[in-house]
Amino acid sequence: MMKRSGSVVMARLVGLVKPLIGYMILAILMGLAGHLCATFITIFGGFAVLDVLGLSNITIFGGFAVLDVLGLSNAPSLQFIFLAVSVFALVRGFLRYAEQACNHFIAFKLLALLRDKVFTALRRLTPAKLEGRDKGNLISIITSDIELLEVFYAHTISPICIAALFTVVMVGFIGSYHWLLGLTALISYVLVGIVIPIFTSKLSGSNGARLRGKSGALASFVLDSLRGLPEIVQYGQGEARVGRMNQLTDELAEDEARMKRVTGWNMAVTNTVILVCNIAMLLLSAHLVDFSGVVICTLSLMSSFGPVVALAALGATLQNTFAAGNRVLDILEETPVVHEITGKPPVVFSGASAQNISFSYPNGEQILCDFSVDIPQDRIIGIVGKSGSGKSTLLKLFMRFWQVQNGKIEISGTNVDEINTANLRNMEGFVTQETHLFQDTIRNNLKIAKLDATDAEIMAACKKASVHDFIMQLPKGYDTPVGELGDTLSGGERQRLGLARAFLHDAPFLLLDEPTSNLDSLNEAVILRSLHEERAGKTVILVSHRKSTMGIADVSYSVEHGRMS
Question: In this predicted model, what pLDDT tens digit does every residue of 405-424 receive, in sequence order?
Answer without folding.
Answer: 889 999 999 999 999 988 99
